[in-house]
Amino acid sequence: MASITIRNLDEATKQLLRERAAHNGRSMEEEVRHLLRDSTQAPASFPAEPAIATVSPEIFDPLELDGKRILLIITGGIAAYKCLDLIRRLRERGASVRPVMTEGARAFITPLVVGALANDKVFLELFSREDEQDVGHISLARECDLVLVAPATADFIAKMALGIANDLASTIVLASNRPLLVAPAMNPIMWAAAALQRNMQQLRADGVHVIGPMRGEMAESGEAGTGRMAEPLDIVAAVRGLLAEAPGTISGPLTGKRAIVTSGPTHEPIDPVRYIANRSSGKQGHAIAAALAALGAQVTLVSGPVTITDPPGVLTVHVETAREMLDAVEQLLPADIAVMVAAVADWRASGEAGEKIKKKPGEAPPPLQLTENPDILKTVGHHAKRPALVVGFAAETQNLIDNAKGKLQRKGADWIVANDVSPAKGVMGGDRNHVRIVSRSGVEDWPEMDKTSVAARLAEKIAERFETTEV
Ligand code: CTP
Ligand 1 test: best mutation among 340, 380, 415, 433, most atoms within 8 Å of CB? Predict the structure, then answer.
């Protein structure tokens, strides 16, 4: 009897499944069940086959969030209904969920059903005499391991960015000293709005962790784009990652060392809806950040827009553009180690159009003028506060070693991790990598392995370097 775990499907299949499920108003698991049922319904002329596959519910460790206390703030969006599943997913993994609902949330789901699923009281009002006597809003904000806002509406995000505390939910967010994870959900046009993006930037700068939103169909018929709340299981994975280890608390050979890692692509806007990007998934950079943290380093990951979750035990700063990435990295100096893995866009549009560029019948396409972006690795490699060890990557499709040596020199790096990103190799977005480590003392050719193993081996090499050299 075979079983399917949705989390183990590749990203493209998952996305297809997500879109089908959204279209049919089903959960992803229900959708798989329907697909299997349809595909195994034998035509009349065929003898009935025994079922060859069943969908097991997600395979998970029922203790993976054992004893963790999640304060779940539900704000008023249509995605609030997904919270019911989220509560169930968190609780079946051993977490307790204490729900807080805004007035808006109550327009979509009732406190009765939320309380029944959470098996706890639902907190609603800031000035409720009864609730304040029970726990009080300050205790609510502190007596938890993580505050999760899901779904987070544009309005609630704006309040968070400004520090407004005019109801129970916003007051808790302001009064909490716990990690804060936000799962935005809204219409794609609202998500793309400049004001909303400004607020998101503020949240990220304030150290708030963000998951999603994802691309897909909206509740409004015929609308699609980025704005869907992340799937409950992806939110659970992010919660697990954030609660795995507080950043910098693991003890190992890199304890006491501060590391900066960049990862993912950058998005360079052309107009409010279009941007220049590349195929980087962030898998290699995120794995390196996690591997350095696992050896005890205090790691800050500066990530471009990716769909994977923040790695455990690492503080992640989310950025969009090359200039934002450079700003974030420079603010993090001094540090001991810099590993620049991001596939930074070399160019950006010379002037971002304030409005969507429209097609004009009969006119030629508008020219796209490009300006060079700052080189983050080169800036760090020649910085007055240069880290003791600076590692760059070289994504090449030809003359791998010569190009890597050139980058080592030009960018002031100590090592360049060179990889062949020709489409046939499947490195960009894939799970495996074949790298060469180019330094002034020579070239090490590592066998092909998965990106997590490359990350672990690189982190060990970095630790050895600090053990053997007084840097
Ligand atoms: N890099 C960077 N900032 C840029 C461009 C690249 O920090 N604006 C870093 C990357 O993170 C990587 C290294 O420089 O560590 C090499 O990136 P790569 O894309 O291979 O090289 P480029 O400098 O972009 O040169 P080219 O595209 O011409 O190969």
Answer: 340
Tokens 């100096």 -> residue: 333
Q: Is the pLDDT of residue 379 over 90?
A: yes
Q: Among residues 183, 242, 236, which one has the least CA distance to residue 213?
A: 183
Q: Which of 8-17, 51-60, 180-189, 460-469 has the lowest mean pLDDT?
A: 51-60
Cα 345 to middle of ligand 1, angstroms: 8
Topology (CATH level 3) of domain 58-244: Rossmann fold (3.40.50)
pLDDT at residue 230, as a whole number: 86
Q: Measure the CA–CA gap between 168 and 393, rounded to whole angstroms.
A: 47
pLDDT at position 22, please? 63
Portions of the chain given CATH number 3.40.50.1950: 58-244
For the domain made up of 246-349+369-471, the CATH class stated in words is alpha beta
Please report which confidence band the pLDDT of residue 39 belongs to, taking 50, 70 and 90 as the band edges: low
Tokens of 206: 């304030």
420 lines ligand 1 (CB under 6 A): no
321 lines ligand 1 (CB under 6 A): no
What amino acid is encoded at 71 in this protein?
L
Any bridge partners for residue 382, and if so which? none
Averaged pLDDT for residues 24-36 = 68
Q: Which two tokens stand for residue 127?
A: 């000035």
Residue 470 has pLDDT above 80, yes or no: no
Half-sphere exposure of 136 (CA within 13 A, CB side): 6
Range of 58-67, 130-139, 363-372 with top mean pLDDT: 363-372
Note the pTM of the prediction, 2 decimals: 0.57
Question: Residue 375: CB within 6 Å of ligand 1?
Answer: yes
Give the whole-angstrom CA distance, residue 13 versus residue 231: 14
CB contact at 8 A, 360 and 334: no
List the one residue out of 308, 247, 313, 236 whose CA is nearest residue 61.
236
Q: How far apart are CA 320 and CA 389, in angstroms?
A: 26
Closest CA to 208 of 101, 316, 311: 316
Q: Work out the mean pLDDT of the chain and round it to a whole number.
A: 85
Q: Give the sheet arrangement for strand 435-439, strand by strand.
A: 315-318, 298-303, 258-263, 337-340, 389-396, 415-420, 435-439, 442-445
Q: Where does CATH 3.40.50.10300 sit in the chain?
A: 246-349+369-471
